[in-house]
Amino acid sequence: SLTLTLPLGILSNHHSLNSPLTMRLFRNIIVSLIALFFIFAFALNGTHASTASDDTNESTLQAQEDALHSASSEKIPFQAEINQLLNIIINSLYTNKEIFLRELISNASDALDKIRYMSLKDKEALRHNEDLKIFVRADPVTNTLTIRDTGIGMTREDLVNSLGTIAKSGTKEFIEKLTESAGDNNLIGNFGVGFYSSYLVADTVTVTTKHNDDDQYIWSSEADNSYTIAKDPRGNTLGRGTEIILHLKEEASEYLDQKRLEELIRKYSEFVHFDIYLWNVRNETRTVEVPSEDEQPDQETPESSEESVQVEDEEKKPETKEITETVKEWKFINSEPPIWTRDPNDVTDEEYIRFYQAISKDKDAKPLTWIHFKAEGNIEFSSILYIPDQAPFDVYDPSQQESAVTLYVKRVFITNSIPDFMPRYLSFIRGVVDSDDLPLHVSRELLQESTVLKIIKKKLVSKAISMIRKLAKDDEKKRREREEEEAERANETGNSDDDDSRPPPEEEEYKYIRFWKAFGKNIRLGIIEDPLNRPRLVKMLRYKSTKSEFHFTSFQEYVDRMKDIQEYIYFISGENIDELRMSPYLEELRKRDFEVMYLTDAIDEYMVQQVPSYEGKDLISVTRDDLKFGDEEMKDVKERQEQANKDFIPLTTFLKKELGDVISKVSVATRLNASPCVLVSPKYGITANMARIMKAQALGADMSEVNKMMMKQRVLEINPNHAIIKQLNRMVDSEENSAITKSMAHLLFETALMRSGFQIENTALFASRIFNMMETSLSVPEDADYSDAENEEIPQQEEVAGDAEEKAAHEEL
User: Fold this and answer.
1) What is the pTM of this model?
2) Would you state the pLDDT for residue 5?
């Protein structure tokens, strides 16, 4: 309206042409016209570009159809092996049809690699198009999917040799092996037959290609016995490269969906180092101004006209409305670069974190640490491995098949479902591995047996352990520095910081402690399952102990603190530290100031069996009967022990006779100070903690039989210095056969059961003995009536056989 109505109004008032306002308006009009000219030119150019990219598939398809049915076209029969291959692919080879897109994009990437390499020698190779890109476009109208690249393209001879015959691609050998084998035919890679995977989803495939050294040709086949080649009558429309059009089957309509295509491209080809674009059509809503009706300007003086324009500009607010437009554009898909191909020194921490978030599909996730390396030698590959900050919810799920480490070949996704790609105890490790040495023409079954993959696995495990070990060393260094600072501060203030009973600094500031709390079970599992790396994994164990109840400590730190006279590493296993701290097993060890490790995880019972020693020091459980202090051969110790054994022969003999069904022997203890007795397990027997774990297992063994076997193996150790033991020993001398002596023996044993962590088999009988003792202590009359006088007398039950003797014993007690 500014460029049309306003000039008309001004020209109708020619007397005002020389006014300042008129001149200013004319200048604005000229500037507006120039701007409109450029806008129109750019719009025209953009429309042309859009038309080129939005070139109606219908006309393209019609032109190809005409060319293929022209007199110059040539129909050529497939080589016999190709015919056989197509039949295998369509009917049985690939179980996962979506991989066709990965194969075609991979082929396009190879074509771009070839032209890029050629351009290094011949700069003219890129004269038609310097952009090396891949384009994917779905057209629901024509039911087609197009994959186009600006790569090297193919000559007519290439079309015949590459798509019509097998040549030297290895496909013939593959077919022979596939025919002979009845094994796993589900391919995970490219056999040199990736192009033919198109027929998994397409009835007809049409290839248009242009090579720098030849004309543009069209190749087409319906996967029957032949294919057709024709020179493209449209001339050079591609410039250079290859365009593959898939006429999709009815059941393959999902591959016309833009979201589905984007998902597949990100899954399989996100890290292809050439840009991949997907044709994107979307509706976009935006707000526009509603043009007002044209009004003729009033005849007025220049001054009043200028004032009027200013007032209108200030007061008038334009009306707006929302309109919906269809936007068509090429969307850049693989924006995440494959940083593992770069030098680690050139990658920032922010890039590593962003990449971790991409592969973990969690935008808020942050890794605890990572390692980026390139393995060189006979087998070369690049890899980035991450340790998550938190344990995944399914880290111990045995049904979890997918590996968190993804395998790529030449930056093309291959699989993340190779069994045992990483050992079970390292299943929490996330990352990528990219190798150019892995053969793509291999089945999943053969890949597991691949020598190359076995070497890669071994190096990955070694690198993962090194990454964890470095995390531990960094924390050890940090802790030493902190302890030195605290010691210096204590010297300056005169206060001692040796008291370990105070709470320590927050453990969360140490990364390895965070790792241990999240993945400590995995390290223990590795010690059980990986004998090759067991020595390295043992160094990563962290436990609290009697001298480090607030800090986690390692075996190495334990050994460094050992007293000169101490020969063994002591540990105790149980449900929690609070329970273990009060255990009678620790009494003599505390007195001698020997440190004891607290093992509180169920898996520790199994793990410790695989670690008989550390740095030449034997590991000894303080709950077993082979406990030693290192001074057993000293003369005075031996004499004292021999004398105690001799003095308590009456009691040990009596207890063995009375409790013979539930214990293997009775011995005089050297481990006790405050407790009268304790039950210990033989060296290869089942401990109380192991019995608890076995009983808790839903699919565990029949514990009734286990208990019977375990009871017969346990050893009752008595404290020769305890008053109860001394008094009982005297009672045995004088009243061995009395009911009270026998009852006290059973009560002593059952109390030892509880204190040692075992379960009492007959809790009712144990409770009865306790109540009888309470009656005696409280001087309750023997004929006391426990019934309620207001209630009717309850008839007495018949005596059960075997209760008379027990009743007599209670009465005597």
Assistant:
1) 0.71
2) 42
